[in-house]
TrEMBL record, chains A, B:
Lineage: Bacteria, Bacillati, Actinomycetota, Thermoleophilia, Solirubrobacterales
Pfam families the UniProt entry points to: DJ-1_PfpI
Highest taxon of the lineage: Bacteria
Protein name: ThiJ/PfpI domain protein
Domain DJ-1/PfpI per the UniProt entry, residue ranges: 2-161
Record-level GO BP terms: regulation of DNA-templated transcription
Length: 212, 212
Protein backbone atom coordinates (compact mmCIF):
# COMPACT_ATOMS: atom_id res chain seq x y z
CA UNK A 1 0.00 0.00 0.00
CA UNK A 2 1.54 3.24 -1.14
CA UNK A 3 0.82 6.43 0.83
CA UNK A 4 1.97 9.70 -0.71
CA UNK A 5 2.37 12.71 1.57
CA UNK A 6 2.51 15.89 -0.47
CA UNK A 7 5.08 18.49 0.55
CA UNK A 8 5.45 22.14 -0.42
CA UNK A 9 7.28 25.14 1.00
CA UNK A 10 5.92 26.53 4.29
CA UNK A 11 4.02 23.37 5.09
CA UNK A 12 3.30 22.82 8.79
CA UNK A 13 5.57 19.96 9.83
CA UNK A 14 3.28 18.26 12.34
CA UNK A 15 0.44 18.11 9.77
CA UNK A 16 2.61 15.73 7.77
CA UNK A 17 4.61 13.99 10.50
CA UNK A 18 1.70 13.07 12.79
CA UNK A 19 -0.02 10.95 10.13
CA UNK A 20 3.33 9.68 8.83
CA UNK A 21 4.23 8.36 12.27
CA UNK A 22 0.95 6.42 12.40
CA UNK A 23 0.41 5.28 8.82
CA UNK A 24 4.01 4.21 8.20
CA UNK A 25 3.65 1.64 10.99
CA UNK A 26 0.88 -0.28 9.26
CA UNK A 27 2.12 -3.63 7.92
CA UNK A 28 2.84 -3.33 4.21
CA UNK A 29 2.66 0.45 4.15
CA UNK A 30 5.13 2.44 2.08
CA UNK A 31 5.06 6.17 2.82
CA UNK A 32 6.58 8.41 0.16
CA UNK A 33 7.17 12.13 0.65
CA UNK A 34 6.77 13.86 -2.69
CA UNK A 35 6.52 17.39 -4.09
CA UNK A 36 6.00 18.93 -7.50
CA UNK A 37 9.77 18.75 -7.77
CA UNK A 38 11.94 16.44 -5.69
CA UNK A 39 14.16 18.15 -3.15
CA UNK A 40 14.08 19.78 0.25
CA UNK A 41 11.17 21.97 1.33
CA UNK A 42 11.29 24.30 4.33
CA UNK A 43 8.52 24.31 6.90
CA UNK A 44 6.52 27.31 8.04
CA UNK A 45 8.28 28.26 11.25
CA UNK A 46 11.99 28.23 11.83
CA UNK A 47 14.49 25.98 10.31
CA UNK A 48 13.26 22.55 9.42
CA UNK A 49 14.05 20.98 6.08
CA UNK A 50 11.92 18.01 5.03
CA UNK A 51 13.04 15.95 2.07
CA UNK A 52 10.65 15.21 -0.79
CA UNK A 53 12.44 12.17 -2.15
CA UNK A 54 10.60 12.05 -5.44
CA UNK A 55 8.57 14.25 -7.73
CA UNK A 56 4.82 13.73 -7.67
CA UNK A 57 5.01 12.58 -11.29
CA UNK A 58 6.96 9.53 -10.11
CA UNK A 59 4.09 8.35 -7.89
CA UNK A 60 0.96 8.75 -10.02
CA UNK A 61 -1.29 6.15 -8.38
CA UNK A 62 -0.98 6.00 -4.60
CA UNK A 63 -3.49 4.09 -2.54
CA UNK A 64 -3.63 6.95 -0.05
CA UNK A 65 -3.11 10.63 -0.82
CA UNK A 66 -2.42 12.95 2.11
CA UNK A 67 -2.24 16.74 1.80
CA UNK A 68 -0.98 18.60 4.88
CA UNK A 69 -1.71 22.27 5.53
CA UNK A 70 0.23 25.30 6.64
CA UNK A 71 0.73 28.91 5.56
CA UNK A 72 2.20 27.72 2.26
CA UNK A 73 -1.26 26.40 1.37
CA UNK A 74 -2.09 29.86 0.05
CA UNK A 75 0.42 29.46 -2.78
CA UNK A 76 -1.13 26.11 -3.73
CA UNK A 77 -4.66 27.30 -4.49
CA UNK A 78 -4.27 28.01 -8.20
CA UNK A 79 -4.71 25.30 -10.79
CA UNK A 80 -1.39 23.87 -11.90
CA UNK A 81 0.79 20.76 -11.59
CA UNK A 82 -0.23 19.99 -7.99
CA UNK A 83 -3.96 20.22 -8.70
CA UNK A 84 -3.57 18.17 -11.88
CA UNK A 85 -1.67 15.50 -9.96
CA UNK A 86 -4.27 15.50 -7.17
CA UNK A 87 -7.15 15.03 -9.62
CA UNK A 88 -5.37 12.20 -11.43
CA UNK A 89 -4.25 10.49 -8.22
CA UNK A 90 -7.72 10.87 -6.73
CA UNK A 91 -9.21 9.06 -9.71
CA UNK A 92 -7.56 5.82 -8.56
CA UNK A 93 -6.91 6.38 -4.84
CA UNK A 94 -8.62 4.36 -2.15
CA UNK A 95 -8.45 7.27 0.29
CA UNK A 96 -7.90 10.97 -0.38
CA UNK A 97 -7.06 12.79 2.83
CA UNK A 98 -5.92 16.08 4.30
CA UNK A 99 -4.87 17.72 7.54
CA UNK A 100 -5.60 21.32 8.55
CA UNK A 101 -5.73 23.73 5.60
CA UNK A 102 -4.74 20.90 3.28
CA UNK A 103 -8.49 20.49 2.80
CA UNK A 104 -8.59 23.92 1.14
CA UNK A 105 -6.13 22.62 -1.46
CA UNK A 106 -8.23 19.50 -2.06
CA UNK A 107 -11.30 21.72 -2.39
CA UNK A 108 -9.53 24.13 -4.74
CA UNK A 109 -8.59 21.18 -6.93
CA UNK A 110 -12.30 20.39 -7.15
CA UNK A 111 -12.23 17.22 -5.11
CA UNK A 112 -14.58 18.11 -2.25
CA UNK A 113 -17.64 19.38 -4.11
CA UNK A 114 -20.71 18.59 -2.04
CA UNK A 115 -18.58 16.74 0.51
CA UNK A 116 -18.59 17.29 4.25
CA UNK A 117 -15.08 18.29 5.29
CA UNK A 118 -13.14 19.92 8.12
CA UNK A 119 -10.08 22.16 8.38
CA UNK A 120 -8.23 24.31 10.90
CA UNK A 121 -10.85 26.10 13.02
CA UNK A 122 -9.65 29.46 11.72
CA UNK A 123 -10.07 28.36 8.10
CA UNK A 124 -13.19 26.21 8.27
CA UNK A 125 -15.57 28.69 6.67
CA UNK A 126 -13.29 29.03 3.64
CA UNK A 127 -14.37 25.54 2.57
CA UNK A 128 -17.81 26.90 1.68
CA UNK A 129 -16.47 29.05 -1.12
CA UNK A 130 -14.88 25.98 -2.64
CA UNK A 131 -18.04 23.90 -2.77
CA UNK A 132 -17.51 21.79 0.33
CA UNK A 133 -19.74 21.65 3.39
CA UNK A 134 -17.77 22.69 6.51
CA UNK A 135 -18.17 20.30 9.42
CA UNK A 136 -16.94 21.44 12.78
CA UNK A 137 -15.52 18.04 13.76
CA UNK A 138 -12.02 16.81 14.44
CA UNK A 139 -12.06 14.05 11.82
CA UNK A 140 -14.57 13.85 8.98
CA UNK A 141 -15.16 10.85 6.73
CA UNK A 142 -17.28 11.38 3.63
CA UNK A 143 -16.90 8.38 1.39
CA UNK A 144 -13.22 8.02 0.61
CA UNK A 145 -12.52 11.64 1.56
CA UNK A 146 -11.07 12.06 5.03
CA UNK A 147 -10.21 15.46 6.44
CA UNK A 148 -8.73 16.44 9.79
CA UNK A 149 -8.97 19.68 11.75
CA UNK A 150 -5.87 21.73 12.63
CA UNK A 151 -2.32 20.39 12.80
CA UNK A 152 -2.37 17.84 15.65
CA UNK A 153 -5.73 16.46 14.49
CA UNK A 154 -3.82 14.54 11.83
CA UNK A 155 -2.78 12.04 14.49
CA UNK A 156 -6.41 11.27 15.38
CA UNK A 157 -7.33 11.12 11.68
CA UNK A 158 -4.50 8.72 10.90
CA UNK A 159 -5.33 6.38 13.76
CA UNK A 160 -8.95 6.30 12.68
CA UNK A 161 -7.91 5.66 9.08
CA UNK A 162 -5.44 2.97 10.14
CA UNK A 163 -8.31 1.24 11.90
CA UNK A 164 -10.39 1.30 8.73
CA UNK A 165 -7.50 0.07 6.57
CA UNK A 166 -5.80 -2.45 8.83
CA UNK A 167 -8.28 -3.12 11.61
CA UNK A 168 -8.72 -1.96 15.17
CA UNK A 169 -5.96 -4.11 16.66
CA UNK A 170 -3.32 -2.76 14.30
CA UNK A 171 -4.40 0.81 15.00
CA UNK A 172 -4.45 0.21 18.75
CA UNK A 173 -0.98 -1.33 18.61
CA UNK A 174 0.31 1.71 16.74
CA UNK A 175 -1.29 4.00 19.32
CA UNK A 176 0.41 2.02 22.09
CA UNK A 177 3.71 2.09 20.21
CA UNK A 178 3.69 5.87 19.94
CA UNK A 179 2.33 6.07 23.49
CA UNK A 180 -0.51 8.32 22.36
CA UNK A 181 -2.15 8.82 25.72
CA UNK A 182 -2.47 12.60 25.50
CA UNK A 183 -2.32 14.67 28.67
CA UNK A 184 -2.31 18.31 27.55
CA UNK A 185 -1.28 20.60 30.40
CA UNK A 186 -4.07 23.06 29.50
CA UNK A 187 -7.64 22.82 28.22
CA UNK A 188 -6.96 25.23 25.39
CA UNK A 189 -6.95 23.15 22.25
CA UNK A 190 -10.19 24.39 20.72
CA UNK A 191 -12.01 27.69 20.34
CA UNK A 192 -14.63 26.29 22.72
CA UNK A 193 -12.21 25.35 25.49
CA UNK A 194 -9.52 28.04 25.31
CA UNK A 195 -9.81 31.30 27.25
CA UNK A 196 -12.01 33.54 25.05
CA UNK A 197 -9.58 36.47 24.98
CA UNK A 198 -6.86 34.19 23.61
CA UNK A 199 -9.24 32.88 20.94
CA UNK A 200 -10.04 36.44 19.87
CA UNK A 201 -6.39 37.48 19.91
CA UNK A 202 -5.36 34.56 17.72
CA UNK A 203 -8.29 35.11 15.38
CA UNK A 204 -7.25 38.74 14.98
CA UNK A 205 -3.57 37.88 14.46
CA UNK A 206 -4.50 35.26 11.85
CA UNK A 207 -6.98 37.40 9.94
CA UNK A 208 -4.39 38.89 7.63
CA UNK A 209 -2.76 35.54 6.87
CA UNK A 210 -5.96 33.62 6.31
CA UNK A 211 -7.55 36.28 4.14
CA UNK A 212 -4.30 36.96 2.28
CA UNK B 1 16.39 31.79 22.87
CA UNK B 2 18.14 29.03 20.98
CA UNK B 3 16.69 25.52 21.04
CA UNK B 4 18.79 22.74 19.56
CA UNK B 5 17.06 19.53 18.53
CA UNK B 6 19.58 16.75 18.09
CA UNK B 7 19.15 14.47 15.07
CA UNK B 8 20.73 11.11 14.25
CA UNK B 9 19.90 8.27 11.89
CA UNK B 10 16.84 6.19 12.73
CA UNK B 11 15.41 8.87 15.01
CA UNK B 12 11.62 8.74 15.46
CA UNK B 13 10.28 11.74 13.56
CA UNK B 14 7.40 12.66 15.86
CA UNK B 15 9.73 12.72 18.90
CA UNK B 16 11.46 15.70 17.28
CA UNK B 17 8.60 17.31 15.34
CA UNK B 18 6.01 17.39 18.15
CA UNK B 19 8.20 19.59 20.38
CA UNK B 20 9.48 21.57 17.38
CA UNK B 21 5.93 22.49 16.41
CA UNK B 22 5.30 23.83 19.91
CA UNK B 23 8.61 25.38 20.92
CA UNK B 24 9.27 27.10 17.59
CA UNK B 25 6.08 29.14 18.10
CA UNK B 26 7.31 30.82 21.27
CA UNK B 27 8.15 34.48 20.65
CA UNK B 28 11.89 34.86 20.22
CA UNK B 29 12.57 31.15 19.83
CA UNK B 30 15.07 29.92 17.28
CA UNK B 31 14.95 26.16 16.74
CA UNK B 32 18.01 24.60 15.14
CA UNK B 33 18.17 20.99 13.97
CA UNK B 34 21.71 19.73 14.38
CA UNK B 35 23.64 16.47 14.22
CA UNK B 36 27.21 15.39 14.80
CA UNK B 37 27.69 16.20 11.14
CA UNK B 38 25.40 18.50 9.16
CA UNK B 39 23.31 16.81 6.50
CA UNK B 40 20.22 14.70 6.03
CA UNK B 41 19.33 11.94 8.48
CA UNK B 42 16.74 9.24 7.76
CA UNK B 43 14.05 8.41 10.28
CA UNK B 44 13.29 4.98 11.69
CA UNK B 45 10.40 3.85 9.52
CA UNK B 46 10.05 4.39 5.82
CA UNK B 47 11.32 7.24 3.84
CA UNK B 48 11.57 10.52 5.66
CA UNK B 49 14.66 12.66 5.39
CA UNK B 50 15.11 15.38 8.01
CA UNK B 51 17.76 18.01 7.48
CA UNK B 52 20.29 18.78 10.19
CA UNK B 53 21.27 22.24 9.01
CA UNK B 54 24.37 22.54 11.12
CA UNK B 55 26.86 20.41 12.99
CA UNK B 56 26.47 20.30 16.76
CA UNK B 57 29.87 21.99 17.04
CA UNK B 58 28.34 25.11 15.49
CA UNK B 59 25.78 25.46 18.30
CA UNK B 60 27.77 24.88 21.49
CA UNK B 61 25.59 26.83 23.95
CA UNK B 62 21.85 26.46 23.34
CA UNK B 63 19.36 27.59 25.94
CA UNK B 64 17.35 24.41 25.43
CA UNK B 65 18.74 21.02 24.43
CA UNK B 66 16.26 18.44 23.16
CA UNK B 67 17.19 14.82 22.45
CA UNK B 68 14.53 12.74 20.66
CA UNK B 69 14.43 8.95 20.77
CA UNK B 70 13.94 6.14 18.31
CA UNK B 71 15.61 2.86 17.37
CA UNK B 72 18.77 4.77 16.39
CA UNK B 73 19.22 5.62 20.06
CA UNK B 74 21.03 2.30 20.47
CA UNK B 75 23.90 3.52 18.31
CA UNK B 76 24.21 6.67 20.42
CA UNK B 77 24.92 5.06 23.78
CA UNK B 78 28.73 4.99 23.61
CA UNK B 79 30.82 7.94 24.68
CA UNK B 80 31.87 10.04 21.71
CA UNK B 81 31.21 13.37 19.99
CA UNK B 82 27.48 13.42 20.82
CA UNK B 83 27.99 12.70 24.51
CA UNK B 84 30.82 15.24 24.69
CA UNK B 85 28.62 17.86 23.07
CA UNK B 86 25.71 17.03 25.40
CA UNK B 87 27.87 17.39 28.51
CA UNK B 88 29.30 20.70 27.32
CA UNK B 89 25.93 22.08 26.21
CA UNK B 90 24.32 20.94 29.44
CA UNK B 91 26.88 22.90 31.43
CA UNK B 92 25.32 26.15 30.20
CA UNK B 93 21.77 25.15 29.16
CA UNK B 94 18.70 26.47 30.91
CA UNK B 95 16.78 23.29 30.10
CA UNK B 96 18.06 19.86 29.07
CA UNK B 97 15.24 17.73 27.70
CA UNK B 98 14.40 14.49 25.94
CA UNK B 99 11.53 12.58 24.38
CA UNK B 100 11.08 8.81 24.47
CA UNK B 101 14.37 6.87 24.50
CA UNK B 102 16.25 10.14 24.16
CA UNK B 103 16.42 10.01 27.95
CA UNK B 104 18.60 6.90 27.67
CA UNK B 105 21.12 8.94 25.68
CA UNK B 106 21.07 11.74 28.26
CA UNK B 107 21.54 9.13 30.97
CA UNK B 108 24.36 7.41 29.07
CA UNK B 109 26.11 10.77 28.78
CA UNK B 110 25.97 10.96 32.57
CA UNK B 111 23.46 13.77 32.80
CA UNK B 112 20.63 12.09 34.72
CA UNK B 113 22.50 10.64 37.71
CA UNK B 114 20.13 10.61 40.67
CA UNK B 115 17.46 12.37 38.64
CA UNK B 116 13.85 11.30 38.24
CA UNK B 117 13.20 10.72 34.54
CA UNK B 118 10.80 9.02 32.16
CA UNK B 119 11.10 7.29 28.78
CA UNK B 120 9.08 5.12 26.41
CA UNK B 121 7.11 2.64 28.54
CA UNK B 122 9.01 -0.26 26.97
CA UNK B 123 12.38 1.29 27.86
CA UNK B 124 11.67 2.86 31.23
CA UNK B 125 13.50 0.30 33.34
CA UNK B 126 16.68 0.78 31.33
CA UNK B 127 17.10 4.16 33.00
CA UNK B 128 17.99 2.42 36.26
CA UNK B 129 21.17 0.95 34.85
CA UNK B 130 22.28 4.44 33.87
CA UNK B 131 21.87 5.96 37.30
CA UNK B 132 18.50 7.65 36.84
CA UNK B 133 15.33 6.98 38.78
CA UNK B 134 12.54 5.82 36.43
CA UNK B 135 9.27 7.66 36.94
CA UNK B 136 6.21 6.22 35.27
CA UNK B 137 4.80 9.63 34.29
CA UNK B 138 4.15 11.30 30.96
CA UNK B 139 6.28 14.38 31.64
CA UNK B 140 8.89 14.59 34.40
CA UNK B 141 10.58 17.76 35.61
CA UNK B 142 13.61 17.36 37.89
CA UNK B 143 15.34 20.69 38.17
CA UNK B 144 16.29 21.74 34.66
CA UNK B 145 15.98 18.18 33.34
CA UNK B 146 12.70 17.48 31.56
CA UNK B 147 11.92 14.10 30.08
CA UNK B 148 8.87 12.88 28.19
CA UNK B 149 7.44 9.38 27.76
CA UNK B 150 7.11 7.75 24.33
CA UNK B 151 6.94 9.61 21.02
CA UNK B 152 3.72 11.66 21.20
CA UNK B 153 4.43 12.65 24.83
CA UNK B 154 6.86 15.21 23.46
CA UNK B 155 3.90 17.43 22.58
CA UNK B 156 2.69 17.46 26.18
CA UNK B 157 6.23 18.01 27.43
CA UNK B 158 6.81 20.92 25.07
CA UNK B 159 3.56 22.65 25.99
CA UNK B 160 4.40 22.30 29.67
CA UNK B 161 7.90 23.63 29.04
CA UNK B 162 6.57 26.50 26.92
CA UNK B 163 4.38 27.46 29.87
CA UNK B 164 7.39 27.54 32.18
CA UNK B 165 9.49 29.52 29.70
CA UNK B 166 6.97 31.94 28.20
CA UNK B 167 3.96 31.78 30.51
CA UNK B 168 0.60 30.04 30.45
CA UNK B 169 -1.03 32.35 27.93
CA UNK B 170 1.68 31.81 25.34
CA UNK B 171 1.51 28.05 25.81
CA UNK B 172 -2.30 28.07 25.62
CA UNK B 173 -2.20 30.15 22.44
CA UNK B 174 0.22 27.68 20.88
CA UNK B 175 -2.06 24.79 21.90
CA UNK B 176 -4.99 26.59 20.28
CA UNK B 177 -2.95 27.33 17.17
CA UNK B 178 -2.05 23.68 16.65
CA UNK B 179 -5.61 22.71 17.66
CA UNK B 180 -4.32 20.25 20.21
CA UNK B 181 -7.65 19.00 21.48
CA UNK B 182 -6.84 15.30 21.24
CA UNK B 183 -9.61 12.82 20.52
CA UNK B 184 -7.93 9.45 20.05
CA UNK B 185 -10.30 6.94 18.46
CA UNK B 186 -9.18 4.24 20.92
CA UNK B 187 -8.20 4.06 24.57
CA UNK B 188 -4.97 2.26 23.79
CA UNK B 189 -2.20 4.77 24.36
CA UNK B 190 -0.70 3.27 27.50
CA UNK B 191 0.08 -0.18 28.82
CA UNK B 192 -2.65 0.40 31.40
CA UNK B 193 -5.39 1.29 28.93
CA UNK B 194 -4.61 -0.88 25.89
CA UNK B 195 -6.00 -4.40 25.53
CA UNK B 196 -3.62 -6.62 27.56
CA UNK B 197 -2.93 -9.07 24.74
CA UNK B 198 -1.76 -6.19 22.51
CA UNK B 199 0.52 -4.92 25.28
CA UNK B 200 2.08 -8.35 25.62
CA UNK B 201 2.43 -8.79 21.86
CA UNK B 202 4.19 -5.44 21.48
CA UNK B 203 6.40 -6.11 24.47
CA UNK B 204 7.45 -9.42 22.96
CA UNK B 205 8.04 -7.91 19.51
CA UNK B 206 10.13 -5.12 21.02
CA UNK B 207 12.20 -7.33 23.29
CA UNK B 208 14.86 -8.02 20.71
CA UNK B 209 15.17 -4.39 19.68
CA UNK B 210 15.27 -2.97 23.17
CA UNK B 211 17.74 -5.51 24.48
CA UNK B 212 19.81 -5.45 21.29
Amino acid sequence: MQIVIVLYDRVTALDAIGPYEVLSRMPGAEVVFAAVEAGTVRTDVGSLGLVADVALAAVPSPDVVLVPGGPGQMEQMEDGPLHAWLRAADATSTWTTSVCTGSLILAAAGLLRGRRATSHWLALEQLTGRGAEPAHERVVFDGKYVTAAGVSAGIDMALTLAGRIAGDEVAQTIQLGIEYDPQPPYAAGSAQSAPPHLVERLREASRFVLNG
